[in-house]
Amino acid sequence: MEYSDYMGLEPTRQYADIIQLPRPASPLSQRRHPRMPLSDRAKIFMPFAALRGYDQAIEKETLRASSESKRILSESKKQQISDLLAQLQPKAPIRLTYFHTAHDYTAYISVTGEVVCVNGYAQQLTLRLESAEPITISFEQIGELTLL
Q: In sequence order, which residues have a C-beta less than 8 Å from that of residue 105 and are 6 or more positions away?
């Protein structure tokens, strides 16, 4: 047995006389079996997602793993923040670090802005940032507060 027979090249020899001929293209065959555009043919060979949602699961887990946990403040730090909150007046410039919780991750965020309102009853501070809408932050979320 020859090497070419072993590799399955024998059928190629059988059809050597017609293998180089163009594809038959009668009007009837063109109507029944139109040629596929090259752009659609390329899609056949594109990789597919065997594990649907795997990329999103990896991204979600990465966010969760990079999330920070909320720090427990000492009593002296809590008292310092409380004293500063009591001193705040509208339009006072401050720098604030607060604990932000989203549905997928948690992190400490530092912002600089001016005070809009300090609501002692609701325990909330409203800040206006330079280029954004005002944000409201709960007193419990504040990790650090500095008057500028």
A: 63, 64, 66, 67
E-strand ranges in the chain read 93-101, 106-119, 124-129, 135-138, 142-147
Picking from 98, 107, 108, the residue whose alpha carbon sits closest to that of residue 145 is: 98
Structural domains of the chain, count: 1
- The C-alpha atoms of residue 117 and residue 91 are separated, in whole angstroms, by 9
pTM of this structure: 0.56
Reading phi first (left if > 0) and then psi (alpha if -120 to 50, else beta), residue 110 is in: beta
CATH number at residue 132: 2.30.30.520
| Model pLDDT for residues 110-137, shown as the tens digit of each residue | 999 999 999 989 999 999 988 778 999 9
Q: What gap in Å lies between CA 61 and CA 92, rounded to an integer?
A: 39
State both tokens at 125: 């501070």
